[in-house]
Amino acid sequence: MREFTTTLIMVSIMLAYAVPGFVLVKCRAVRAESISAFSKMLMYVCQPALTLYSFNKADFSKKLGLNLLLFLAIITIAQLVFLGIFYLIFRKRMQDVRYRIATVATTLSNCSFLGVPLLEAIFPDSPNVAVYSMMYFLSMNLLGWTLVSAVITRDRKYIGIGKILCNPATISIAIALPFFLTGFKIGTQNGRLLGAVGDAVNLLGKMTTPLCMLVLGMRLATMRWRSIFGSPLQYLSVGINQIVFPLCVLGILSVLPLGRELVCCMFIMCACPVAAVVQNYAEILGEGQDAAAGTVLLGTLSAVVTLPILALLLQVI
Q1: 242-281 pLDDT, tens digit each
Q2: 3-state SS of the chain?
Q3: 109 forms bridges with which residues in the sheet?
Q4: What average pLDDT is seen over the chain?
Q5: CA atoms within 13 A on the CB side of 187
Q6: Rg for the chain (alpha carbons), in Å?
Q7: Domains by residue range for the chain, with CATH
Q8: Alpha-carbon dihedral of residues 181, 186, 189, 194, nearest 10 degrees?
Q9: pLDDT, tens digit, for every residue of 190-205?
């Protein structure tokens, strides 16, 4: 029951972060057209800092390195399969941006903004869980800045080697990897200057979850409740993302010779609600913002129920 209680408390706290964003927009202290600027701050500043923070916590070993590569390969294949399945299911309705958002929302998970603090709470004695989440986030962003962006905009210009190599997720991991592989830590043990740099990186990284939820709260304030709770398509996306997808991945993992820590981390991250980056991509690309926000908000709210229940399965893994 500890996993259930911990997950329920963490998800509830994260939802509370959305309240100030909602209030600020409702009080007109923040304009609706400024929301995309907050999304860019989240994607281009805080998320790279979270990547550096996560890799800085873990200690490299050959076993961990192999596990990270396995993790990256498995979750990338799983996401590609689900994206492909729902692209084929919705292919005749792709002119409607709601179905394009639904296609990507069935698969992308809030694996870093919500996943990192959640994993750290469930596994407080394991420094590796945060770096596992970065492998998930790397995979999701490699797809997000390329295939997902192409699906949302219906423009193939996003599919290319340049988009794979030149995006915040890839660049931040490229910066973090040399430190990770050499065991060099950005912290006070290497002097006052690096200690100050490490503190700044950690602080920016830990801002991802509050800022992510603030953006959701801001977008919620601009929407009608019916657009969140009145769309069967959004319920379908959330159900596939937060129940079907994690259970399918768990079924695959159960027949592979993998360690419990890796399996538990991947399962919990797959069970996290619809990724906030679905909304962030929509905000940045300028298409489907309301559909994306409605789906993300519905997924985040429903995660109070789905995520703690699925977390109970950790007891039998």
Answers
A1: 999 999 999 999 888 888 888 988 999 899 988 877 877 7
A2: CHHHHHHHHHHHHHHHCHHHHHHHHHCCCCCHHHHHHHHHHHHHHHHHHHHHHHHHHCCCCHHHHHHHHHHHHHHHHHHHHHHHHHHHHHHHHCCCHHHHHHHHHCCCECCCCCHHHHHHHHCCCCCCHHHHHHHHHHHHHHHHHHHHHHHHHCCHHHCCHHHHHCCHHHHHHHHHHHHHHHCCCCCHHHCHHHHHHHHHHHHHHHCHHHHHHHHHHHHHHCCCHHHHHCCHHHHHHHHHHHHHHHHHHHHHHHCCCCCHHHHHHHHHHHHCCECHHHHHHHHHHCCCHHHHHHHHHHHHHHHHHHHHHHHHHHHCC
A3: 274
A4: 84
A5: 11
A6: 19
A7: 2-312 (1.20.1530.20)
A8: 140
A9: 656 667 777 888 888 8
Separation between Cα atoms, residue 265 and residue 115, nearest integer Å: 9
Of the chain, the end-to-end C-alpha distance in Å amounts to 14
As given in the structure block, the two tokens for residue 314 are 């950790």
State the pTM of this model: 0.84
Contacts of 204 by beta carbon, 8 Å cutoff, 6+ apart: 45, 46, 49, 50
Token pair belonging to 6: 């911990």
Ramachandran category for residue 109: left, alpha or beta (phi over 0 → left; psi -120 to 50 → alpha): beta
| 40 burial type by CB count under 10 A (0-12 exposed, 13-18 middle, 19+ buried) | middle
Give the type of residue at 204.
L
Distance CA 110, CA 141 (A): 11
